[in-house]
Write a structure and sequence with these properties.
It contains eight helices and nine strands. The chain has about 230 residues and is α+β, with helices and mostly antiparallel strands. The protein has one domain. Strands 2-4-3 form a three-stranded antiparallel sheet. A hairpin with a 4-residue loop joins strand 8 (about 185) and strand 9. Helix 6 packs across helix 7 (about 170-180). It binds iron/sulfur cluster. Iron/sulfur cluster binds near residues 39 and 107.
Length: about 230
């Protein structure tokens, strides 16, 4: 009997980073080679559904949508069943795939692999296993430096969570590390540098101006899965 592959090729790191950084910035759909994996759909994750997602809301039974904590009326979360499964997952597939929430469209578990962070909950073992399987290539020194920069950014955010608007969970922290990784690279090298907190705040305010006043304004369901 053959088990799951030890690793899954995630491609050259710099190529993935450029595409993912742009997708996060524009909140665009990501292209993840999921294969038959549904780990993120079975990992006890609340899925945020925003007030503008009328098509999605129309395709989810109202009883499955709950008010998003800390957000105004019209913001929802889609919960999960007693086994941690998304209730819209039917026979191993998304029953509303063409109408799925934006959070699902932009979700990419490779950000955690890139940032070197693990999913938050013990019951997310399948997701953690998938994250560990991704293997990025480093065909050039730039690939390696950029990968180190994203990992350094994740560690830095964790260490400076009292001074920076660090998200409350691993996927969001990893996505933020992608967004601020430039602060950790000296392009002249390229080589790693450690920025001061102010430089990271400036980069954050450039990337997410609406979320910067005041810091830590919204720690609930915000973007991506919660
Ligand atoms: S855990 Fe990753 S690979 Fe699996 S379905 Fe979710 S995004 Fe795709």
């Amino acid at each position: 009997m053959s088990g799951p592959p030890e690793t899954i090729d995630a491609g050259p790191f710099a190529t993935w980073l450029v595409a993912t950084d742009a997708a996060i910035s524009a909140q665009e759909e990501t292209q993840v080679p999921c294969g038959g994996c549904t780990a993120c759909c079975t990992s006890s994750q609340f899925v945020y559904v925003g007030p503008g997602e009328l098509d999605t809301i129309a395709h989810i039974p109202a009883a499955l949508l709950f008010p998003a904590p800390g957000l105004p009326a019209g913001h929802y979360v889609l919960g999960y069943d007693e086994e941690g499964r998304c209730p819209m997952l039917v026979d191993g597939g998304c029953s509303i795939y063409e109408h799925r929430p934006r959070a699902c469209r932009v979700y990419d578990c490779r950000v955690m692999a890139a940032a070197g962070v693990e999913p938050d909950l013990p019951e997310q073992e399948d997701l953690a296993a998938r994250v560990r399987q991704w293997s990025f290539g480093h065909p050039s020194a730039t690939d390696r430096v950029l990968h180190e920069a994203v990992r350094a950014a994740a560690r830095y955010l964790g260490a400076h969570h009292h001074q920076l608007p660090v998200p409350p969970n691993a996927p969001q922290l990893a996505a933020l590390a992608v967004e601020v990784h430039r602060c950790f690279v000296d392009d002249e090298g390229p080589r790693l540098v450690e920025p001061d907190v102010q430089a990271v705040l400036v980069e954050l305010s450039r990337r997410r101006p609406a979320e910067m006043t005041p810091i830590r304004r919204r720690r609930g369901a915000r973007r991506g899965r919660t």
